[in-house]
Amino acid sequence: MRIAILAFPRFQLLDVAGPADVFAEAARQLGQPRAYQVQVLSASAGPLRSSSGLRMAVDATVATHRGAIDTLLVAGSPDLNDMASDAPLQDWLRRRARTVRRYGSVCTGAFVLAASGLLDGKRVATHWNSTARLSAAYPKACVEADAIYVKDGRLFTSAGVTAGMDLALAMVEEDHGRELALRVARELVMFLKRPGGQSQFSAHLAAQTAERPSVRTLQDHILANLKGDLSVPALAAHAGMSERSFARTFRSETGTTPAEFVENARIDAARRLAEESDLPAKRLADAVGYASVDGFRRAFTRRLGVGLVEYRRRFAK
């Protein structure tokens, strides 16, 4: 099965190497070295310098490449404007997209596909810092701003950098089943369980973004005390602030309300517990601070886009 990854000058190295390693490990686990054959293509000949400065040799250019392609991916780069306006390249992409079994992009590679019209009317993902720009430049694409990866028919698109590995792993699972994908994930010490619709940010990552040490300390308090009283009055008292001042400061520092942050933290914890244990919904709810199992179920579905039972069916060990 031939995987072609199209890369450009200043490409993000992990956008290419990450998926390539997933496919290579899958082939090794299968005991079939030719199960996945990864080729790196470029618009022009010669080695490519990545955004980190490392160079990569390419196997062929779009003009010289011959043979069938099963899966075509476009890697991201900080400098894609020229590529997005390259008419011969766009023609090549449109022709190839009609013949491959599936196609897609990693990170900002979505801009190249969008310029060719291949994202029109499609649900897509890209790096969180580029979603607004992609939506504005290509309004026919339905950008899902916070998704790890999105599958829409034959089209696969992912968020930035390491999310390309999640994307490749989803393809391996589609090709060879869950058990192989699990073995690959374990060997590469990565999470199999990040669903396509899962947020690009966890509560723990969000807790690192606040500038004020006092707000970061409060976020750490929330994460460490999910079963405690995390109401706005209680949190404001813990911070030594009035409720109004606390709510205003928290939102300006984190971009979210205290209640939203608490819910995200609780559901993030519940998600991990659901993956790693067979605790029933009521015990999961209690473990992360929900008094009502119905309220917990509603919050779980709202945050992850899938109910607890279906989430476990897809992602539990």
Could you list some keywords that capture this structure?
317 residues, alpha/beta, seven-stranded mixed β-sheet
Task: Write a structural description.
By secondary structure, the chain is α/β, with parallel strands linked by helices. It has 15 helices and 11 strands. The chain has helices at 13-30, 81-84, 87-99, 110-115, 131-137, 163-176, 178-187, 203-206, 213-224, 232-239, 243-254, 258-276, 281-287, 293-304, 308-315, and strands at residues 2-7, 37-42, 48-49, 55-56, 60-61, 71-74, 102-106, 123-124, 142-143, 149-152, 155-158. Strands 5-2-1-6-7-11-10 form a 7-stranded mixed sheet. The protein has a two-stranded antiparallel ribbon with strand order 3-4. It is globular.
Give a short account of the largest sheet: 7 strands, mixed
Radius of gyration: 22 Å
Count of helical regions? 15
Helix percent reads 40-55%
Amount of beta strand: 5-15%
Strand and helix layout:
Elements (H helix, E strand, L loop, with lengths): L1 E6 L5 H18 L6 E6 L5 E2 L5 E2 L3 E2 L9 E4 L6 H4 L2 H13 L2 E5 L3 H6 L7 E2 L6 H7 L4 E2 L5 E4 L2 E4 L4 H14 L1 H10 L15 H4 L6 H12 L7 H8 L3 H12 L3 H19 L4 H7 L5 H12 L3 H8 L2
Parallel strand pairs: 1-2, 1-6, 2-5, 6-7, 7-11, 8-9
Antiparallel strand pairs: 3-4, 10-11
